[in-house]
Amino acid sequence: MASASEARRGIVLFGAHGQLGRALTRALAGLGPVYALSHADCDITDEAAVHELVQRLRPGIIVNAAAYTAVDKAETECDAALRINAHAPGYLADAALAVGAWLVHYSTDYVFDGAAARPYREDDPTAPLNVYGETKRLGEEAVLARPITAFVLRTAWLYDREGRNFLTTIQRLAAQGPLRIVADQYGSPTPVTVLAQVTRAIMAHPRAADCAGLYHAACAGVTSWHGFAEAIVRSLGLAVAVSPIATADYRTAARRPAYSVLDGGRLKERLGIVLPPWDRALAELLTGAP
Ligand SMILES: NC(=O)c1ccc[n+]([C@@H]2O[C@H](COP(=O)([O-])OP(=O)(O)OC[C@H]3O[C@@H](n4cnc5c(N)ncnc54)[C@H](OP(=O)(O)O)[C@@H]3O)[C@@H](O)[C@H]2O)c1
Predict the structure, then answer these.
(1) Beta strands in the chain (DSSP E)
(2) Active site residue: 35, 132, 159, 215, which one?
(3) pLDDT digits over 4-22, tens only?
(4) What pLDDT is attached to residue 1?
(5) CA–CA separation, 70 and 67 (whole Å)
(6) Which residue minimizes the CA distance to atom 8 of ligand 1?
(7) Based on the number of CB atoms within 10 Å of its own CB, is 211 exposed (0-12), middle (13-18) or buried (19 or more)?
């Protein structure tokens, strides 16, 4: 696949040690030099540090996989969530503007309130139910307000075979006894490997420069957390019962949307990129298939 000249100038990746960041480090290799930066390498809330680094490396593309992602903790750590998710993306966008770089940024299905009766499209009104969703919504706005080539990818229910996520949590809890999992929240589980490949495909797309903007990038299809847990248990051959419970029976600090399915039509129409159904993506992740 041909790589865009922007990628050949270099890709600066922030948040490289997060679950998406690790997948991006692998997926973007070969498009151009990748400067994979952890939190320790650069704190994205340090505006001067971000500018100095970007000026020094002068990349063609900046990718922001760094975020405050602790949805429940964000309810009490609003300031930290705001600085990382809302203010810092603006610093990255300003830095991109200063060197003429593209910016790829990620957002969430939790910008929606979950009251819809069909998959959400990019221009549907946002109405986050929790602090995390609100800070991510502000981050989207900060990026899209700058006159740069920016791709903001809203994704959902990210997971991987390692790290802290729903898949590894189910694996751990299954060893301890029967599982009770929320069955009335619906969404689309998306492996980080799939989102990283989508990111690569956008960067390498010959018309990408004309297609900047906001996109929904989650796997196709829909399930509940309970359905996702059942699929994990079945795929891994774990001998454990998985019972459905209601959100009301599982108290969390943050409210979550009951339905946050994302319509992937814009990504398909403008860039010809289609994400696989969530259950096939899970099977492929677990078997190591491409
Ligand atoms: N996880 C999901 O289910 C989900 C769903 C929808 C959308 N998203 C979005 O997808 C993107 C990737 O999420 P993820 O699941 O890969 O997150 P993650 O695993 O929590 O990784 C986030 C990374 O950001 C780093 N970070 C935090 N604050 C930072 C700062 N001030 N400066 C630099 N780095 C900082 C963290 O480092 P430390 O750990 O060292 O602080 C961590 O490595 C985010 O934009 C997230 O909002 C995630």
Answers:
(1) 11-14, 34-37, 61-64, 102-108, 150-155, 158-159, 179-182, 186-187, 190-191, 213-216, 223-224, 242-245
(2) 132
(3) 789 999 999 999 999 999 9
(4) 46
(5) 9
(6) 108
(7) middle
Is 132 an active-site residue? yes
- Given the candidates 3.40.50.720, 3.40.50.920, 3.40.605.10, 3.40.50.300, the CATH classification of the domain at 5-157+192-219+262-275 is 3.40.50.720
Ligand 1 pocket (Cβ < 6 Å) reads: 14-15, 17-21, 39, 43-45, 65-69, 84, 106, 108, 136, 155-158
Whose CA is closest to atom 5 on ligand 1?
156
- Start-to-end Cα distance in the chain: 16
- pLDDT one-digit tens code per residue, 58-88: 999 999 999 999 999 999 999 999 999 999 9
CB 84 within 8 A of CB 68: yes
Q: CA-based diameter of the chain, in Å?
A: 55
Task: Quote the CA–CA distance of 202 and 231 in Å, as a whole number.
Answer: 30
Beta bridge partners of 62: 12, 103
Q: Tell me, what's the pLDDT at 236?
A: 94
